[in-house]
Design goal:
By secondary structure, the chain is mainly alpha-helical. The protein has 3 domains: 135 residues, no CATH class; 109 residues, no CATH class; 133 residues. Helices cover 66% and strands 2% of the residues. It is built from 24 helices and 2 strands. It has a two-stranded antiparallel sheet. A hairpin with a 2-residue loop joins strand 1 and strand 2. Helix 5 crosses helix 7, helix 5 packs parallel to helix 9 and helix 14 packs antiparallel against helix 15. The longest helix has 23 residues. The radius of gyration is 34 Å and the shape is elongated. It starts with a strand and ends in a 7-residue tail after the last helix.
């Protein structure tokens, strides 16, 4: 008896299935598990017309993928149907990337040295489907739920689709479910308001020809504050890329310097460290222009502590030398603070001080804080003093001991015969004492604080040596 499936008003003769299987056999080709079972094709025949009829006619007009899906499903080639719909999903996600902006999309999708090879629409083809989906989720071009669903469909497409040999089969309800996800959650979905807002912000920033006014910046505060953490990370990463580009105008860089610190403060440490690593990459690859602009970017974002350890050691060493040079140069009260601010731009907490330079940094700052031994402001730069005290207030027990050792260095102790310098040294010791946790260290500091007139030679005191023997190695 003849059996038919009615699909959208078209009768499909099931006997054709046997004929196709026989034809494959005659050619000596496999025929098992090639064409879907009659029952599964009936599921498609009963439900697909209703789904398609509910779609907007404007959507269906150019939906060639749906035509291919329908024909393949009617014939019983479910895996081919899945491939057709999946290919359309990939094309749609790439189109979403174009709408969002390729530079920002590739910044989020590709890291490290590979990033420079991704610039054009054609380069989107170089992204694996998995990376494409994940990046669209990160940029809020698709939802978290859609991301999960698409990963499941991709797994099924790879494991039981036509792209790989397998004994597993797709059933009719699965295929229809996947079709619905792909069409409704991806192909008919628009990017989120947040994604569109970021694209607009970046485009306007790149096209700006005038410096952003304070009123405009205040108007931007609320939408920037409402961005998700992920989009904030993506945005700061993108505007960093714009800032270091050789094609960026001075006006655009000026505007980035105004708005970037506000975005930077809301971004995660992870993306900040990645930008620090990028800066090292520019230096190692002799990209002097990008390195210069990248260093400027971290400077005005107050992000120098996110540079790599090696880079921070070199910079801190240089700034410590510059601070000491300023201390002994003309008009030191005026010049010291700028160098101290550069040091503090790398040091926000005690943990930011590299062990390789901790003694040098503490000693050079102490030389400035002890002062020049004159009556005016006790010989200490008025603008520099709160900066020095801020630094010393960060130090814990281990580095307090380095501070005590620095006090005994020739550069510091030679000034401690002076009454103004003694007074300043006692102030430093009291700052240390306020942070000290160890009872022995507090005892050492009390011993020193009680003997201001002896500080220059107290290292010769037997009782002092005995008190400090567990912390200071005396020769």
């Amino acid at each position: 008896m003849k059996k038919d499936i009615v699909l959208g008003g078209v009768d499909l003769n099931i006997t054709q299935s046997n004929e196709l299987n026989n034809y494959l056999t005659q050619l000596g080709l496999p025929s098992e598990n090639i064409i879907a079972e009659i029952a599964e094709r009936k599921v498609i025949g009963s439900n697909l017309p209703s789904f398609i009829s509910n779609l907007d006619p404007a959507i269906k007009q150019d939906a060639r993928y749906l035509s291919k899906f329908t024909v393949a499903a009617a014939v019983g080639l479910f895996d081919a149907s899945l491939n057709y719909i999946w290919n359309e999903v990939v094309l749609n996600l790439r189109q979403k990337a174009l709408i969002y902006g390729l530079d920002m999309f590739f910044d989020a999708a590709v890291g490290g040295e590979r990033r420079e090879f991704y610039k054009t629409e054609e380069d989107l083809k170089g992204l694996k489907d998995n990376a494409l989906i994940n990046t669209c989720r990160k940029l809020e071009l698709i939802s978290d739920v859609t991301n999960t669903k698409l990963h499941h469909i991709l797994t099924m497409r790879n494991d039981i689709g036509a792209s790989h040999p397998t004994e597993s089969r797709i059933n009719g309800f699965e295929l229809l479910g996947w079709l619905q996800v792909c069409v409704q959650d991806v192909l008919l979905d628009k990017p989120s308001e947040s994604a569109i807002r970021i694209k607009s912000f970046v485009e306007n920033l790149k096209k700006s020809t005038e410096v952003i006014s304070e009123d405009v910046m205040m108007g931007m505060e609320k939408p920037l504050r409402e961005l998700s953490l992920q989009n904030t990370d993506n945005l700061i990463n993108s505007i960093f890329g714009i800032y270091v580009s050789s094609e960026t105008s001075n006006i655009v860089r000026k505007n980035i310097s105004i708005c970037a610190p506000r975005i930077w403060s809301k971004a995660r440490d992870e993306v900040k460290y990645k930008i620090g690593i990028k800066l090292d990459g520019y230096k190692n690859n002799l990209q002097e222009g990008k390195f210069k602009f990248g260093a400027e970017f971290l400077e005005f974002c107050d992000g120098n502590q996110y540079r790599s350890l090696e880079s921070r050691i070199i910079s801190l060493d240089t700034h410590a030398d510059d601070l000491l040079d300023a201390r002994y140069a003309w008009d030191n009260f005026h010049h010291e603070p700028s160098h101290m601010r550069k040091l503090l731009s790398f040091i926000k907490t005690e943990s930011d001080i590299p062990k390789e330079r901790v003694f040098k940094i503490i000693k050079n700052i102490m030389v400035c804080r002890v002062g020049k031994g004159v009556s005016y402001n006790s010989g200490v730069s008025p603008a520099g003093k709160p900066l020095y005290d801020n630094f010393f207030s960060m130090l814990g027990d281990e580095n307090i001991i380095w501070g005590v050792i620095a006090m005994h260095s020739n550069e510091v102790s030679s000034w401690l015969e002076n009454k103004y310098c003694q007074k300043n040294m006692i102030e430093i010791l009291n700052i240390f004492k306020s942070n000290a946790r160890s009872e022995r260290i507090r005892e050492i500091l009390d011993f020193l604080i009680a003997r201001p007139n002896l500080l220059s030679k107290i290292h010769n005191d037997v009782n002092y040596k005995d008190l400090t023997k567990n912390h200071i190695q005396w020769s």
